[in-house]
Design brief:
Blueprint lengths: L1 H22 L7 H6 L6 H28 L5 H27 L6 H8 L6 H33 L4 H57 L5 H7 L5 H4 L13 H8 L9 H9 L3 H32 L12 H9 L4 H42 L5 H22 L7 H25 L5 H20 L1 E3 L2 E2 H5 L3 H19 L5 H12 L6
Antiparallel strand pairs: 1-2
Helix pairs in contact: 1-7, 1-14, 3-6, 3-7, 3-11, 3-12, 3-14, 4-10, 4-11, 4-12, 4-20, 5-6, 6-7, 6-14, 6-15, 6-16, 6-17, 7-12, 7-14, 7-15, 8-12, 13-14, 14-15, 16-17, 16-19, 17-19
């Protein structure tokens, strides 16, 4: 009966998401509607959609799990993400919106690259579309894995076989629900559901650790609770500069974790929200909302890991650490049917995190396939109707491939997100920054930076060079930091070594810089 009550909460939530998708079907007639919502997002929708699609199940599972095991030494990632969010909204959002309008009303990031550098060869569109398809398939797999682990943890019988079989069922359910409303309603449906899901994530992530901390410290101190649950030295566990075992957090680790900030400049599913905001005034409002949301969410996610270490009666290990938020909710809300239903609603916060990211990633991948690969290179005379059909087909195919990648119940959510984040940050981040702020940047520099950034991540993370280890494993340095630096160097060196951009390109740059863009 307990599981049925939670299942009812899940079912109600997922039906609501599908209904929202159905509502937007009739308003989705063109590619601009499906992929960019007609550039008509309000401040709240844009802000919460951007942040909800950004954080994914990683916020409620990966980050709390890492903090639970290693202590506050792991929150440097959260600090890096906060820095990246602030810089992205202040430096990129407004100017990217203006530039995509000026650059022939680009609907996608690959389309923006092509129009910004006046690429007649189509190479930028093709390369960036392939990068999006590859890395977003992996990123979507991480979201599906989060959803599947949620179902398996809540509904399995506790045995390994039960967990694995329930994981597969959960994976199918999560993939199908996300696929249905993304397929039907496109960008408007995704943003509307993200608005709801952004609020749900925030409520769940704030309420649960605050309630748990209050119950934990009612009769005992937090320090004593940590000691009772196996933390030998709470002073180390709660020290920013130390790991739980007392060893200092290394400089390389701090640089790597702060380096997550660089990923924001290259995240297509976040950047496309900037492109869709309806006015410059709304951009400023969205910025404030988004930054407040991210401060509260990241802080609460870290608090979940810390509080759970003292609160949970059953301790978790490295193989189960990513279920910490689920276990915390289960222990808090278990005494009667009403509490079980409330717990089910809070667990829907994890579903919200999963779905709000996966739908955005599927949509951006679909736009890259239909707008940039199909309409941009294969069939340039394709109608909106035909291109839209290709985009919807791409949503289905990518979802299926991502589900296969996520089939392994032991796959790490943190690892999948880390790889995809590095890939986008290194390949697209420098190109976005230089295209917006450096007048001298050119097509050759952009192609070189994109290629160097993507290849660096692949070489650094996947090819064993040192005694069977990859460079990432051997050095401990996050590949994004290396890839971003090398890609930026390539952008500068190649741009300066090749022909300067023509007057038409520099005139567009000057117009965007001055804010003199019609329609903004």
């Amino acid at each position: 009966m307990d599981k049925i009550i939670i299942l009812i909460a899940f079912a109600v939530y997922m039906v609501v998401m599908i209904v929202i998708g159905a509502v937007y079907v009739k308003n989705t007639k063109t590619n601009e509607d499906y992929f960019l919502g007609g550039r008509n997002l309000g401040s709240w929708t844009a802000a919460l959609s951007a942040q909800a699609s950004d954080m994914s199940g990683w916020l409620l599972m990966g980050l709390p799990g890492a903090v639970y095991i290693a202590g506050t030494g792991e929150i440097w990632i959260a600090i890096g993400l906060l820095i990246g969010t602030v810089l992205n909204w202040y430096l990129v959002s407004g100017r990217l919106r203006r530039y995509t309008i000026k650059a022939n009303n680009a609907l996608t990031i690959p389309g923006y690259f092509e129009n910004r550098f006046h690429d007649k060869t189509g190479i930028l569109q093709v390369v960036s579309s392939v990068i999006i398809t590859i890395f977003f398939t992996v990123y979507t797999a991480s979201a599906f894995s989060s959803g599947a682990k949620l179902f398996a943890t809540v509904f399995s019988d506790g045995s390994t076989d039960g967990f694995n079989s329930t994981y597969i069922y959960g994976l199918v359910v999560a993939a199908v629900v996300i696929l249905v409303y993304t397929f039907m309603g496109g960008f408007k449906a995704v943003c509307a559901t993200d608005l709801v899901q952004g609020f749900m994530m925030l409520i769940a992530i704030l309420a649960v650790p605050i309630l748990a901390y209050g119950m934990l410290t009612y009769n005992t101190g937090f320090h004593d609770a940590l000691v009772a649950n196996g933390v030998e030295n709470p002073e180390n566990y709660l020290n920013f500069m130390k790991n739980a075992d007392g060893s200092p957090v290394s400089v390389v680790s701090i640089i790597s974790n702060l380096g997550w900030a660089l990923g924001y400049f290259g995240m297509p599913h976040i950047l496309v929200r900037f492109m869709a905001i309806k006015s410059e005034a709304e951009v400023k409002k969205s910025r404030t909302i988004a930054i407040v949301w991210i401060i509260l969410s990241l802080g609460a996610a870290c608090m979940i890991g810390l509080v759970a270490r003292g609160f949970l009666t059953t301790q978790l290990d490295a193989s189960t650490q990513e279920t910490v938020f689920i276990k915390l909710i289960q222990q808090l809300f278990s005494n009667n049917y009403l509490l079980l239903f409330i717990g089910g609603v809070f667990l829907c916060g994890i579903l919200a995190a999963v779905m709000s990211t996966a739908d955005s990633q599927l949509l951006v991948t679909a736009s890259a396939v239909s707008e940039d690969l199909y309409r941009g290179t294969i069939n340039k005379n394709a109608s909106d109707k035909k291109s839209l059909a290709v985009g919807r087909a791409a949503v289905v195919v990518v979802a299926i491939v991502a589900a296969f990648i996520a089939l392994d119940p032991n796959s790490s959510i943190m690892g999948l997100v880390s790889n995809a984040w590095a890939g986008f940050g290194a390949a697209f981040g420098p190109v976005i920054i230089f295209s917006l702020f450096w007048r001298r940047s050119n097509l050759q520099g952009a192609v070189s930076a994109m290629a160097i950034g993507a290849l660096t991540i692949i070489v650094w993370d996947y090819i064993p060079f040192i005694n069977g280890q990859t460079l990432g494993d051997a050095t401990g340095l996050y590949s994004l930091v290396v890839g971003f630096i090398l890609a930026s160097a390539a952008m500068i060196i190649v741009s300066l070594a090749t022909k300067a951009p023509g007057k038409e390109i520099t005139d567009e740059f000057d117009a965007v810089k001055s804010g003199n863009v019609e329609g903004c």
